[in-house]
Amino acid sequence: MLEELLVLVVVFGTCVLLVDQIRRLIAHVSLNRTLREALKQAPEHVPALLDKVEQRPLFPLALGGWVFLAGAAAIGGLMLVYGEADESELWTVCAGLGFIGVVLLAWSRYNARRTSALVDSMD
Questions:
Q1: What's the pLDDT at 57?
Q2: 20: helix, coil or strand?
Q3: DSSP string spanning 37-101?
Q4: Between 48 and 5, where is the model more confident?
Q5: Integer angstrom CA distances of residue 101 from 21, 41, 108
Q6: For residues 91 and 100, what is the distance between their CA atoms, to the nearest angstrom?
Q7: pLDDT (tens digit, 9 = 90+) per residue, 79-89?
């Protein structure tokens, strides 16, 4: 049972990290292209663009939390649909994935609040 949970956590975690890295890569490519164009065409607008860049979220863990919650819901839904709701081992796996998702969402929210409070205190 523990092995199943660990395998699912590793699979979901790997998928989350892969999707997040691809998302970051696309965002950085787009941002770098925008900054290059701004430097060529309107250098006076670059400081405003850089201010917007600094406002980006520093802790994108919420995506991982939502993926883990979605995985737990999908497994739970499949168990209900296919009539395997009696197997407590699978419910333990669902609970474990859901718990990890909730922890990641809570940690992301905590870090976002802490970071905004830190930034506000610097002003």
A1: 59
A2: helix
A3: HHHHH-GGGHHHHHHHHHTS-S-THHHHHHHHHHHHHHHHHHHHHTT-TT-HHHHHHHHHHHHHH
A4: 48
A5: 19, 44, 11
A6: 14
A7: 888 776 666 67
Predicted model pTM: 0.60
For residue 90, give every residue at least 6 positions away whose Cβ sits within 8 Å of its Cβ, in sequence order, or none: 75, 79, 84
* Residue owning tokens 């870090």: 111
The pair phi, psi for residue 84, each rounded to 5°, is -105, 30
Residue type, 62: A
**Could you tell me the two tokens for 51?**
């201010």
Q: CB under 8 Å to 10, separation ≥6 — which residues?
A: none
Average pLDDT over residues 48-53: 73
The residue assigned the tokens 């701004």 is 38
SS3 call for 123: coil
